[in-house]
Amino acid sequence: MEEKFKQVAQWIINSKRIVVFGGAGLSTESGIPDFRSPGGVWDRYNPEDFYFQKFISSETSREKYWQMATEMYEPMKKAQPNLAHLAIAEMEKLGKLDCVITQNIDGLHLKAGNSEEKVIELHGTAMYVSCLSCQKRYDRDEIQERIKKGVKVPYCDDCGGPLKPATISFGQSMPERETQEAYDRSSLCDLFIVIGSSLVVQPAASMPLVAKRNGARLVIINRDPTPYDDMADLVIHGQAGPTMASILEYLKMGLMPHESF
Ligand code: APR
Predict the structure, then answer these.
(1) Tens of pLDDT along 143-185?
(2) Which of 136, 144, 204, 247 has the most neighbouring CB atoms within 10 Å?
(3) 109 labelled catalytic
(4) Distance 131 CA to ligand 1 centre (A)
């Protein structure tokens, strides 16, 4: 395994444009469950119930959605960046990061110190709420306070429209700017590192393919096998935190003058 860590560190040193692509597995060590592992969100809830079309079509669906969203928000609110988030923030400081493309809605890359312009939130964020009619923005905690006081489905103070966390639900259109930027940067990078994603949800899961097809090296760091393992240049089936911490150590060693590993 050490040889694999060294190899990834060496590829980072030799690369000019490095994209990190993250999924829910990057945040499990921060206490936020992922979606498809045993005990994950979709083990406890049926994803069919949370399609965007259902949310906009009925009060009952909105109530169900807010119950699930409130349960998911609690661990996110308390969560702190783990070793993987911190290593990615360090890569930026070392000038070794083009961007982080994340499917996560927990805001932990920003909390870890990555700059906003380097973080592409493909599936939006749970850290604020917006009105689906007038796009008025609300702080998430303010709306959670209303839920705590018994509101089952919050509506907009200005236009009365339905409020929803600023995340992208199944069936909801992807954010145009972020999606285009993610495609562009994936196609231009020379090293693409996937961390903690099952790589089954589109269009996000097509980004590693775009990178590979445009000549980038592909590294996958994930606890379980993914459908793309065979086409990757290197696969590490391990925990994101300790793996990224080890890679960072070799990276720093390798970047030191006259040092090698
Ligand atoms: N270290 C490394 N890998 C991990 C860890 C960890 N600590 N914890 C979990 N994993 C791996 C699991 O093995 C799993 O393959 O992370 C992967 C997480 O996969 P999913 O739960 O499917 O999450 P993700 O790929 O982000 O899902 C994509 O699906 O439900 C939607 O919108 C949601 O953004 C999400 C999208």
Answers:
(1) 999 999 999 999 999 999 999 999 999 999 999 999 999 999 9
(2) 247
(3) no
(4) 28
Angle between helix 240-255 and 2-14 (nearest 10): 50
- pTM of the predicted model, to two decimals? 0.96
Using CA atoms, how far apart are residues 51 and 233, in angstroms rounded to an integer? 35
Q: Give the number of the atom of ligand 1 that is nearest the alpha carbon of residue 240.
A: 1
Choosing from 85, 109, 123, 258, the catalytic residue is 123
β 124-131/163-167 pair status: antiparallel
With contact defined as beta carbons under 8 Å apart, do 99 and 118 qualify?
Answer: yes
Structure tokens at 125: 């964020």
Could you report the per-residue pLDDT of 57-92, keeping only the tens digit for each? 999 999 999 999 999 999 999 999 999 999 999 999
Compute the distance from residue 221 Cα to the ligand 1 centre, in Å.
11
Q: Do β-strands 191-195 and 217-221 pair in parallel, antiparallel, or remain unpaired?
A: parallel
For residue 114, what are its two tokens? 């990555």
Closest CA relative to residue 112, chosen from 80, 69, 72:
80
Helix (H, G, I), strand (E, B) or coil at 33: coil
